[in-house]
TrEMBL record:
PANTHER family in alphabetical order: GLUTATHIONE S-TRANSFERASE OMEGA-LIKE 1-RELATED, GLUTATHIONYL-HYDROQUINONE REDUCTASE
Lowers pKa of active site Cys (site feature) positions: Y273, Y316
Protein name per the record: GST C-terminal domain-containing protein
GO terms assigned for molecular function: glutathione transferase activity
GO cellular component, one term: cytoplasm
Length: 348
């Protein structure tokens, strides 16, 4: 067995030049119908642990909703505010995702300031499968994790009591294809063979410069690293704008996984990233093609229920005291209200 790595978060994944270098997910098993597959597609066998604040977890909630898998794969939403994951161990400084505790006492941020925050918002529940579990970290430890990054989403196997995957890009493809026998919308194919070259090409530049690009801006610890990230993000934002002025979706005129991967970043852009991650060279609300694109996706059946701006803003603004010492949450411009207005994408 490999030696266990020290507990860490994304904030620890920094290069010597002050740039953010996200590491790949460690758990990448696959669910498939195959005689040799350890993980077979079954109804009510798998469980998603997610945060509604996390864009990577948001991808999985969107695909679950769009495919009609709500009765097939159960979900638990963790608390948006990071807490110490070993609160009784003063030497362990790791902070991360914890479960909601509806009867618990309010708390402050991890340096004792801000808040107080409720021990659970309406959507945050205890772990239904492991009584008394406090944090997501405990699930990783139960599964024998040696990587040390306790992230969401987690696709959990209730039968084998282990992690299938914590890589969102893999999870959404499994949800797209491997559960069609149980899905209410099995004909929806978000990664159709005839569109894969265009989808892959879009993902190839959107991930590093937009999805991860906002984090590269926000977590940069040198001016040079920030300048490089914001230049690439701004150029890609403008590229999205140009594409969406001429076609309905980012990889053509069919809705695909590339749109889901892009949407989860765009929906957080104005309310969080513009302020918190200093991505203020552009905004969605002042870019008509992108705003209307977001409106159309938000208004697709099931998608609005996956967008919880209270959870999103609470997480970002209260979880990292080194970025926001007092955990004050900006009021914002009611971006969700803008998403509820009619869109013009039918013209394309």
């Amino acid at each position: 067995m490999a030696p266990k790595a020290e507990a860490r978060t994304a904030l620890d994944e920094m290069a010597s030049d002050g740039s953010f270098k996200r590491r790949e997910a460690a758990w990448r098993n696959w669910i498939e119908t195959s005689p040799t597959s350890k993980f077979q597609p079954e109804a009510d066998r798998y469980h998603l642990y997610v945060s509604m604040a996390c864009p990577w977890a948001h991808r999985t909630l969107m695909v679950r909703a769009l495919k009609g898998l709500e009765d097939v794969i159960t979900v638990t939403v963790v608390h948006p505010t990071w807490r110490k994951t070993k609160p009784d161990d003063d030497a362990d400084k790791h902070t991360g995702w914890v479960f909601g505790n509806p009867g618990g006492a309010p708390f402050n941020n991890t340096i004792g300031l801000g808040g107080p925050f409720p021990a659970a918002f309406e959507v945050n529940k205890p772990d239904p499968h492991h009584e008394g579990t406090f944090s997501i970290r405990e699930l990783y430890e139960k599964a024998g994790d040696v990587d040390g990054k306790y992230s969401v989403p987690i696709l959990w196997d209730k039968k084998l009591q282990t992690i299938v995957s914590n890589e969102s890009s893999d999870i959404i493809r499994m949800l797209n294809t491997e559960f069609n026998d149980f899905a209410k919308n099995p004909d929806l194919d978000l990664y159709a063979k005839h569109r894969r070259p265009q989808i892959d090409e879009a993902n190839e530049w959107i991930y590093p410069t937009i999805n991860n690009g906002v984090y590269r801006c926000g977590f940069a610890t040198s001016q040079g690293a920030y300048d490089k990230a914001i230049d690439e993000l701004t150029a890609s934002f403008d590229r999205v704008d140009s594409i969406l002025q001429n076609q309905r979706y980012i990889a053509g005129n069919e809705f695909t996984e590339a749109d889901i991967r892009l949407f989860v970043t765009l929906v957080r852009y104005d309310e969080v990233y513009n302020v918190y991650f200093k991505t203020n060279t552009r905004s969605v609300s002042t870019t008509p093609s992108i705003l209307n694109y977001c409106r159309e996706i938000y208004q697709m059946p099931g998608v609005a229920d996956t967008v919880n701006m209270e959870q999103i803003k609470t997480h970002y603004y209260t979880s990292h005291p080194n970025y926001n010492r007092w955990s004050v949450i900006p009021r914002g411009n009611n971006f969700v209200g803008l998403l509820q207005e009619s869109h013009d994408r039918d013209s394309l």
